[in-house]
Amino acid sequence: MIKHILCPTDLKERAYIALKEALQIAHQFNAGITILNVHNEFLDKDERKMLRVSVDKQKEKYRQIAFESKAEMKAAIDRLHADDIEINYLLRGGKPAETIVAVAAAEGVDLIAMCTDGRDNIKDFVTGTITEQVINNAPCSVLVVPQKS
To answer: What's the pTM?
Structure first.
């Protein structure tokens, strides 16, 4: 039974294709959804020291990014008229695939719903896409929704 769905988003339009599917499943199973936005540009403490970046400047930058990202995720839910579903919003730093898998395990989700549009660049051919990495390491089922043309 599906009770908790993780829907990662990069805030691009294609990610909301998977969110629509996740909302349909949530309605069917009376499940909750966690929308996850991962930022790999967030620096940890050691990286800030190494780059000699001002902590206060970085904190303000991260706060602004988090505020804008959460507002954009909430706007998407409003556009999709999903007021009747329990929605949690998470923002994390790190590598997207690793973070998605870690959050799925920590939150005990039953399903990850994400969209893919295939290989975007040469790096994807070498290391695999984020979606491929999630599929290979996820602690639960993964629904991959193809980008519609």
So the answer is: 0.81
